[in-house]
C-alpha cells in the first residue's frame, strides 16, 4: 500500500470512529433521560475517538520511516558476503549505486565494481521495500482499529471524554513546541557528529590555526600535495573583512536613519520612508548577490581602473557594501528600539536646559541607548557572518590571507557551499570539512546572538 | 580656556556659541537625511537596473519562414515518425529558400545558426497538432537563437570588431534584411513561463523552478503553520513557568537567528542521509524551509495571542468554559488573522530563501517539470543563482526577468499580509 493510500485509509477510519463513538455515547443514556446526563457532550466522545484512532498509527508511521532506510540497508548488505567486508565508504557507494539503479535507471557507468551484485541488490531492495510497506500498513491499521475498540468499550454515561480529549490535545500542543528543541538538537548533533569524523582525519589545531585552505583531497595516494590543507584562518579573515565592510556601511547609515526617522522626520514622511526601507529587508539575498556580482562589482572595477587601482572582479568591497545595504533595516529597527527605550523625561530634561535636538541625541539619548545599540550591532554582525548568497555570488573562491578590501577573499559560508554543491561522497575529508565549518559558524553566530540578546534585554530592564 | 572667555558672562558665552551650535544642528539633520537617502537611492538604482535589464526578456524575436512539409518527412501508420523524419533538414531548406544567394558551405552554417535549436521541437509539436499540413507549405514563426535575439534587442554593439561579436557580419546583414521586411518580429516570450531550464537561453524558462518553489511552499505551509500555531498556543496558554518552558523560549529566539545555511546542513545530514528522502526533491526542501520558518510563525502567533485582552478569556472562564474551550472558541478565532499574517510573511521569506536549498542538491540542472513532491526539482531563487552564473548576455536578461517575477510574488504575498492585517485589525 502506498503511503498516500494509507493516510487516506486512516483518515477514513478516524471519521468512522467519530460517528461510532458519538452514537455510542448517545445510546448509553436511557431513552427517558435527556442527553444532558452524559458527563461529556457526544462530540467530545467523537473527538477523543478520532485522536485514539489517528495519533498512535501516525507515530508508528513516523518512527517507521525514520528507521526504515537504515534497517533495510543493513539487511540488504548482509545478503552479500563480499560487500559486507568493505569499508563504510565503499558500502555507502554501493548503496547509492543500487538506489540510483532502482529509482532512475541512471546506472550505466562501465567499470563500476560489483555490477552483478548491484543488479541483484536492486531486485532485493525492491522486494524489501514493498514488504516493509505492507507490514507498516497492516500494523498501522491494526493499531488504529485497536484504538477505536478500546475507546468504544469504555464509553458510558460517566466517561470523562472531554477531559481526556483536552489532555491529549494539550500533549499534542506541547509536542509541537518541542519541535523547536528537536531542531536545535538535530542541528547540533548532525553538525557535531560529522565534525568529529572530520577531526579524526585532520587535527583540530591545524584546522583552527592553519593558514592554508585548499580542500582538494587526492584521488590517488601518490599525488603531489595530496593531503589537502584545512586551515580556517584565511576564511576567518575573509569573513571578518567582509563583515567589517558591511558594518562600516550599515552601522552609521542604519543608526542615523533611525535617528532621523525617529526625531526629525514628519509623520507623513516617515510613513512613506519607513516601508520603503523595509523593502530592503524583504529583497531575497540571491537578488542582492546578483546585484553585487553583475552591477556593483563591474562598476567598482571600472571605477578602480579610472583612478589607477586594481580592483578584483570578485572584490570583498562589492560583497561587503551590498551586504551592508541589506542589513541597514535590521540595524535601523534595532537602534530605533534602543532609542525608544530611553525615558522621554531624560531628553525633555536636556531640552529644557536649552540644548539643541542634536545635542540631546548626541549627549543624552545615544549614551543612554548605547548598550542597546551595541547589542543590536552584535545581532547584525551575526547576520552578516551567516549570510551566504551574497558572498557566494560576489566574493571569490580562493582563500587569500589578506585584509585588502579590493582583493578577492572567501568566507566560511562560501566554502561550505562549494564543498557541498555537486557530486560528493559523504565521508571524504572534503565533505566533512563543510560540517566542521558549519559547526564553527553555528557556534560563532549563536554566541554573538546570545550575547547580543542578553545585552539588549538587560539594558531594557534598566529603564522599565 | 582662554582668558577672554573667562571674562564673558554665561549668557554671552551661550549667545556666542549659538550660531555654530545651530550650524551643527542642521549639519546633523542633513547627515541623517542623507543616510536615509542612501537606502532609498539604492532601492531606486536596484529596481531600475533589474527592470531595465529584465524587461526585454519578456519578449522574444521570431523569424517567419515558409516551411515545406512535402520533403524529409517519414509517415508510418498515419503518424509522423519522429525518429526517421529529418526536421532539421526542413528548417534548413526553408532558410536556404529564403536566402538563395547563400551557397557557400561556411556561410550556410552561419545561416542555420540564426534559428534556435528548439525550432525542431516546435515543428514536431506543430505536426502533432495539425497532421493535415503534411505535404503542404506553411508559414511558421520560429524562435531565433539567443545571439540574434540579443542583436535585435540592441544588446550587441554593431561597431565592434567582427571577432569580438557573437554575431558575424553576414548574419547581421541577413537579420537587418529580415527586420526591414518584417519577417523578424517580437512576440511575447511564452517559453519563459512554460519551459524548464535549458542550456540554450532562448529555450530556458522558469516553469519547473516555479513549480518546485510552489510545491515546497505547500509543504512548508502544511508543516509549519499547524505546528507553529500549536507551539505558540502551548507557550502562551499552557506552558508552566519552569526551566523547560524557558529553554523552549530561548531556543526559539536563537533558532530565528541561526544562519539559514546551517539548516541546509541539517537537511543534508538528517533528511537526506538519515531518512533517505531523495535529494533535490521539493519534499526535503519544504521540510528544511518549514524548520526555517517555524520560529517566525511561532513568534508572530504569540504576538497575536498576547494582543487579545485577558477580559475575553476571563469572561469565558467565568461562565464555565474549560481552558481548552477558551482557546478553541475564543483565542484561536480572534488571533487567527494575526497568525495568518505571520504565516504569509514567513512563507514569503521561505520563497526567497536559497542558501539551504543549495545544500540539499537543488542546484542540479533540471529540465523536467516536477509533478510530485519527490521528483528532483529546482526553486525560483536557485534558478536565479544558476542563471546569474552563466556568461551569456541572454541569461543575464533572463535572470533579471526571473528576479522581477520573484519580486512580484513576494510583493503580492506581502500586500496580502498587509491587507489582512488592515482588514482584521481590532482595537480592543
Structure explained in plain terms:
The complex is a heterodimer of chains A (464) and B (428). With 464 residues, chain A is mostly helical. Chain A is 77% helix and 1% strand. In chain A, helix 2 (42-78) runs parallel beside helix 6 (161-201) and helix 8 crosses helix 11 (316-340). Chain A is flat, with a radius of gyration of 31 Å. The relative contact order of chain A is 0.09. Chain B has 428 residues and is mostly helical. Chain B starts with a helix and ends with a helix. Classes of the chains: A mainly alpha (464), B mainly alpha (428). Chains A and B meet through helix 2, helix 6, helix 8, helix 9 and helix 10 of A and helix 2, helix 9, helix 10, helix 11 and helix 12 of B.
In short:
The complex is a heterodimer of chains A (464) and B (428). Chain A is mainly α.
Tell me the layout of helices and strands.
The complex is a heterodimer of chains A (464) and B (428).
Chain A: H1 3-28, H2 42-78, H3 81-84, H4 88-104, H5 115-154, H6 161-201, H7 204-209, E1 213-214, E2 229-230, H8 233-264, H9 267-282, H10 285-306, H11 316-340, H12 344-352, H13 357-386, H14 389-394, H15 412-420, H16 429-463
Antiparallel strand pairs in A: 1-2
Chain B: H1 3-7, H2 10-54, E1 59-68, E2 75-76, E3 79-80, H3 87-98, H4 105-112, H5 119-129, E4 137-143, H6 146-152, H7 169-180, E5 184-188, H8 191-194, H9 207-238, H10 243-255, H11 260-272, H12 282-306, H13 310-318, H14 323-352, H15 355-359, H16 380-389, H17 393-424
Antiparallel strand pairs in B: 1-4, 1-5, 2-3
Kindly state the percentage of residues in helix of chain A.
over 70%
The quaternary organization reads as heterodimer
Count of individual beta strands of chain B: 5
Largest sheet: spatial strand order of chain B: 4-1-5
Distance between the termini of chain B: 59 Å
Q: What string, H for helix and E for strand, traces the elements of chain A in order?
A: HHHHHHHEEHHHHHHHHH
Query: Which percent bin holds the helix content of chain B?
Result: 55-70%
What spatial form of chain B do the alpha-carbon principal axes imply? Answer: extended
Let me know the number of strands of chain A: 2
Tally the structural domains of chain B.
2
Regions of chain B with pLDDT < 50 over 5+ consecutive residues?
A: none
Amino acid at each position: 500500500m502506498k503511503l498516500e493510500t494509507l493516510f487516506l485509509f486512516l483518515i477514513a477510519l478516524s471519521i468512522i470512529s467519530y460517528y461510532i463513538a458519538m452514537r455510542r455515547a448517545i445510546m448509553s443514556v436511557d431513552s427517558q433521560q435527556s442527553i444532558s446526563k452524559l458527563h461529556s457532550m457526544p462530540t467530545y466522545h467523537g473527538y477523543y475517538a478520532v485522536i485514539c484512532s489517528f495519533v498512535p498509527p501516525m507515530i508508528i508511521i513516523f518512527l517507521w520511516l525514520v528507521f526504515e532506510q537504515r534497517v533495510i540497508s543493513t539487511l540488504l548488505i548482509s545478503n552479500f558476503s563480499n560487500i559486507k567486508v568493505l569499508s563504510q565508504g565503499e558500502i555507502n557507494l554501493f548503496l547509492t549505486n543500487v538506489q540510483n539503479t532502482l529509482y532512475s535507471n541512471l546506472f550505466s557507468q562501465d567499470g563500476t565494481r560489483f555490477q552483478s551484485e548491484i543488479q541483484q541488490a536492486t531486485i532485493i531492495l525492491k522486494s524489501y521495500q514493498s514488504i516493509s510497506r505492507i507490514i507498516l500498513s497492516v500494523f498501522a491499521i491494526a493499531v488504529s482499529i485497536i484504538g477505536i475498540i478500546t475507546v468504544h468499550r469504555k464509553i458510558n454515561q460517566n466517561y470523562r471524554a472531554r477531559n481526556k480529549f483536552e489532555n491529549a490535545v494539550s500533549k499534542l500542543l506541547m509536542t509541537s513546541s518541542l519541535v523547536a528543541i528537536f531542531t536545535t538538537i538535530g542541528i547540533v548533533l548532525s553538525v557535531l557528529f560529522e565534525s568529529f569524523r572530520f577531526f579524526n582525519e585532520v587535527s583540530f589545531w591545524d584546522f583552527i590555526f592553519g593558514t592554508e585552505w585548499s580542500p582538494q583531497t587526492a584521488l590517488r595516494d601518490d599525488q603531489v600535495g595530496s593531503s589537502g590543507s584545512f586551515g580556517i584562518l584565511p576564511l576567518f579573515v575573509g569573513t571578518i573583512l567582509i563583515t567589517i565592510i558591511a558594518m562600516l556601511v550599515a552601522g552609521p547609515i542604519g543608526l542615523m536613519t533611525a535617528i532621523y526617522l525617529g526625531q526629525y522626520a514628519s509623520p507623513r514622511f516617515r510613513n512613506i520612508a519607513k516601508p520603503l526601507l523595509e523593502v530592503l529587508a524583504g529583497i531575497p539575498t540571491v537578488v542582492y548577490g546578483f546585484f553585487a556580482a553583475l552591477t556593483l562589482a563591474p562598476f567598482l572595477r571600472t571605477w578602480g581602473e579610472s583612478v589607477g587601482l586594481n580592483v578584483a572582479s570578485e572584490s570583498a568591497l562589492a560583497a561587503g557594501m551590498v551586504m551592508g545595504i541589506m542589513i541597514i533595516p535590521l540595524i535601523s529597527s534595532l537602534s530605533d528600539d534602543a532609542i525608544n527605550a530611553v525615558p522621554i523625561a531624560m531628553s525633555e530634561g536636556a531640552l529644557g536646559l536649552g540644548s539643541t535636538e542634536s545635542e540631546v541625541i548626541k549627549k543624552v539619548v545615544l549614551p543612554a541607548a548605547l548598550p542597546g545599540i551595541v547589542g543590536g550591532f552584535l545581532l547584525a554582525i551575526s547576520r552578516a557572518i551567516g549570510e551566504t548568497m551574497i558572498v557566494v555570488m560576489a566574493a571569490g573562491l580562493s582563500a587569500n590571507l589578506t585584509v585588502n578590501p579590493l582583493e578577492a577573499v572567501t568566507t566560511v559560508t562560501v566554502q561550505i557551499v562549494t564543498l557541498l554543491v555537486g557530486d560528493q561522497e559523504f565521508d571524504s575529508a572534503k565533505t566533512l570539512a563543510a560540517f566542521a565549518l558549519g559547526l564553527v559558524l553555528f557556534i560563532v553566530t549563536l554566541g554573538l546572538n546570545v550575547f547580543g540578546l542578553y545585552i539588549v534585554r538587560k539594558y531594557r530592564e534598566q529603564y522599565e | 580656556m582662554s582668558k577672554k572667555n573667562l571674562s564673558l558672562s554665561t549668557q554671552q558665552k551661550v549667545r556666542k556659541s549659538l550660531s555654530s551650535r545651530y550650524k551643527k544642528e542642521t549639519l546633523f539633520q542633513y547627515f541623517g537625511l542623507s543616510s536615509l537617502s542612501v537606502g532609498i537611492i539604492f532601492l531606486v538604482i536596484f529596481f531600475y537596473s533589474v527592470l531595465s535589464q529584465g524587461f526585454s526578456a519578456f519578449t522574444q524575436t521570431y523569424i517567419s519562414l515558409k516551411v515545406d512539409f512535402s520533403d524529409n518527412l517519414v509517415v508510418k501508420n498515419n503518424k509522423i515518425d519522429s525518429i526517421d523524419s529529418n526536421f532539421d533538414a526542413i528548417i534548413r531548406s526553408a532558410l536556404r529558400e529564403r536566402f538563395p544567394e547563400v551557397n557557400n558551405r561556411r556561410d550556410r552554417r552561419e545561416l542555420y545558426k540564426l534559428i534556435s535549436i528548439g525550432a525542431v521541437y516546435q515543428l514536431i509539436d506543430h505536426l502533432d497538432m495539425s497532421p493535415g499540413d503534411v505535404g503542404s507549405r506553411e508559414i511558421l514563426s520560429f524562435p531565433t537563437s539567443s545571439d540574434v535575439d540579443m542583436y535585435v534587442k540592441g544588446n550587441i554593439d554593431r561597431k565592434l570588431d567582427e571577432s569580438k561579436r557573437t554575431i558575424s557580419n553576414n548574419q547581421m546583414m541577413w537579420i537587418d534584411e529580415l527586420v526591414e521586411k518584417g519577417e523578424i518580429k517580437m512576440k511575447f516570450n511564452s517559453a519563459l513561463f512554460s519551459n524548464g531550464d535549458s542550456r540554450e537561453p532562448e529555450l530556458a524558462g522558469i516553469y519547473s523552478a516555479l513549480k518546485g518553489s510552489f510545491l515546497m511552499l505547500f509543504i512548508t505551509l502544511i508543516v509549519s503553520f499547524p505546528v507553529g500555531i500549536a507551539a505558540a498556543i502551548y507557550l502562551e496558554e499552557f506552558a508552566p513557568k519552569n526551566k523547560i518552558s524557558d529553554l523552549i523560549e530561548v531556543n526559539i529566539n536563537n533558532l530565528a537567528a541561526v544562519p539559514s545555511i546551517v539548516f541546509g546542513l541539517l537537511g543534508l545530514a538528517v533528511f537526506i542521509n538519515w531518512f533517505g528522502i531523495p535529494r533535490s526533491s521539493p519534499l526535503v526542501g519544504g521540510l528544511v524551509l518549514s524548520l526555517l520558518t517555524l520560529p517566525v510563525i511561532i513568534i508572530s502567533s504569540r504576538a497575536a495571542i498576547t494582543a487579545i485582552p485577558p477580559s475575553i478569556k476571563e469572561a469565558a472562564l467565568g461562565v464555565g468554559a474549560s481552558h481548552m474551550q477558551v482557546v478553541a472558541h475564543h483565542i484561536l478565532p480572534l488571533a487567527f488573522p494575526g497568525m495568518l499574517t505571520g504565516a504569509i510573511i514567513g512563507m514569503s521569506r521561505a520563497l526567497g530563501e536559497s542558501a539551504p536549498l543549495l545544500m540539499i542538491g537543488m542546484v542540479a540542472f533540471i529540465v523536467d517539470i516536477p509533478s510530485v513532491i519527490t521528483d528532483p526539482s529546482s526553486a525560483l531563487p536557485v534558478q536565479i543563482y544558476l542563471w546569474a552564473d552563466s556568461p551569456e548576455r541572454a541569461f543575464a536578461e533572463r535572470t533579471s526577468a526571473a528576479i522581477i517575477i520573484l519580486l512580484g510574488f513576494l510583493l503580492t504575498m506581502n500586500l496580502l499580509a498587509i491587507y489582512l492585517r488592515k482588514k482584521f485589525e481590532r482595537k480592543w
